[in-house]
Write a structure and sequence with these properties.
The complex is a heterodimer of chains A (218) and B (243).
Chain A lengths: L1 H12 L5 H19 L3 H22 L3 H8 L2 H7 L4 H30 L4 H28 L6 H12 L1 H16 L4 H30 L1
Helix pairs in contact in A: 1-6, 2-3, 2-6, 3-6, 3-7, 3-9, 6-7, 6-10, 7-8, 7-9, 7-10, 9-10
Chain B lengths: L9 H32 L14 H28 L2 H33 L7 H22 L3 H29 L19 H44 L1
The chains are: A mainly alpha (218), B mainly alpha (243).
């Protein structure tokens, strides 16, 4: 499992892995927002948590089809399927690798982008907390979507149609935490619910993803 | 009358559908015509909402079916995954567009009613929002069915999507409750008599609901039968080409 994780991380970081792509996309989305809604600080401050969450969500979506597509093309996915490692484990490791290369960097740069949108200091902390609690769910749900569409030739667009509705609960609770944190309200309730969504998704979805992957490889 | 599962045989299924479909469609039309005419012309106006209240005869049944069509797809998907009856998978597939259209009808009639009553076509109310999300789930489900080439794989994948989607749809339902306060009124129908609409509206509404349910059954039976026949045609053609 560790070997698979290291292999996936290496593939993602090296040239052509698209490691920086998600981050750059996140940056661009956040930079474009003030152009679209105007540079008024008060407005930006109010919408910053939502914009950052949407940006993180889309950046996460961007790299989803890479999770299985390349392995499927060169046949290593078939080898992984017949390896002694259970497919559920493979899927979980792949989701973890996706989170480490996409979710975690997003969390790391979010404070800087928060400053760009004039998010107050307290809001930045809660934004980071909410992203830290929410992005694992995004990766796991995304892995499920990627497993569903792995056999399709033009699965990218369909993947977003399938995955985005599944992101709704995470987005609602995550943005709620960030928003409540920025305005100084109580964050405990949405944070607990967000963590619950993440825990359940991490615990159960790898089984669904593995089942779907088996159907696709048959 | 043997086991219920005998009807999972496509041939038996089409035979039964051939026999039952005219009656079901006829009853659906009769109930819809009767219920709608009764509702539109022979019930009084509401004292606050005026005649706009009558959209309830379209809105409530379609909303009810939008949810229950998904529920039926969930059951059919489970049956397909467990017992691998093709008719079940095809019925789930056949129900999806019907359910999606019901969702659209519920949203549209709600908007038309909301404009004079709430003063807006759309509000980000929990019920409205969760219906919009449900519609997105329908779209994804239908898109996945049409994207996968192999029929059995498509049935497998959409079944799992339906199950996972159901969990997330329920989750979203409660998440949006948390996210915004409601504008929508409470349940129109419930076992708890306190909450029900007034009796004058109640009976024609029940007739309309019966009509919508029958219509749904008729459409699903028809679409499933069509799909079975289309598959048989394809199989026969393929056999001819090889021979």
């Amino acid at each position: 499992m560790t070997a698979l994780l290291i292999r996936d991380l290496r593939l993602a970081v090296r040239a052509g892995g698209g490691f920086g792509l998600g981050l750059a996309f996140f940056l661009i989305v956040v930079v474009l927002v003030p152009f679209a809604v105007g540079p008024a600080m008060g407005l930006l401050e109010r919408i910053a948590p939502g914009v950052l969450w949407i940006g993180a969500l889309l950046a996460c979506l961007l790299s989803l089809d890479r999770i299985f597509a390349l392995d499927r093309e060169d046949g290593s996915l078939d080898l992984l399927a017949v390896s002694p490692l259970p497919l559920e484990g493979v899927v979980a490791v792949k989701a973890l690798a996706h989170w480490l290369t996409t979710g975690l960097p997003l969390v790391a740069v979010a404070p800087v982008l928060g400053l760009l949108l004039s998010l107050p200091g307290k809001g930045v902390i809660w934004l980071v907390v909410s992203l830290l609690a929410g992005t694992p769910a995004l990766s796991v749900i995304g892995t499920f979507g990627a497993a569903l569409t792995v056999g399709l030739k033009r699965g990218g667009l369909l993947l977003s149609l399938l995955v985005l509705p599944l992101y709704v609960p995470t987005l609602i609770f995550g943005a709620e935490v960030a928003r409540a944190g920025a305005t100084g309200l109580d964050t405990a309730t949405p944070l607990v619910l967000l963590a619950a969504v993440t825990c359940v998704a991490v615990a159960l979805l790898p089984f669904a993803s593995a089942a779907v992957l088996r159907m696709n490889l048959r | 009358m043997g086991s219920f599962w005998e009807y999972a045989n496509p041939k038996r299924f089409t035979q039964v559908v051939d026999r039952v479909l005219p009656a079901v469609s006829g009853l659906a039309v009769a109930a819809l015509v009767a219920g709608l005419i009764w509702g539109f012309f022979f019930t009084p106006d509401d004292y606050r909402q005026g005649s706009t209240v009558k959209i309830i005869y379209l809105h409530v049944p379609s909303a009810l079916l939008a949810i229950n069509a998904w529920l039926m797809m969930l059951v059919a998907s489970l049956v397909w995954l467990v017992r691998r009856h093709h008719v079940s998978a095809l019925a789930a597939r056949a129900a999806a567009p019907v359910g999606a259209v019901m969702t659209v009808i519920a949203l549209l009639t709600g908007a038309i009613w909301g404009q004079p009553m709430w003063g807006t076509w759309w509000a980000w109310d929990p019920r409205l929002t969760s219906f919009l999300i449900l519609f997105l789930f329908y779209l994804g489900y239908i898109a996945l069915w049409s994207a996968v080439e192999n029929d059995d794989t498509a049935a497998d994948l959409t079944s799992v999507l339906c199950i996972v989607g159901s969990v997330f749809a329920i989750l979203s339902r409660y998440a949006v409750n948390f996210w915004n306060q409601g504008l929508h009124q409470g349940a129109s129908l419930s076992m708890d008599k306190e909450e029900n609409v007034a009796d004058v509206f109640y009976i024609p509404l029940l007739v309309c609901i019966a009509g919508f349910v029958l219509l749904f059954i008729a459409l699903v039976l028809l679409r499933t039968r069509t799909e079975i026949r289309a598959r048989r045609t394809r199989a026969l053609l393929a056999r001819e080409v090889t021979a």
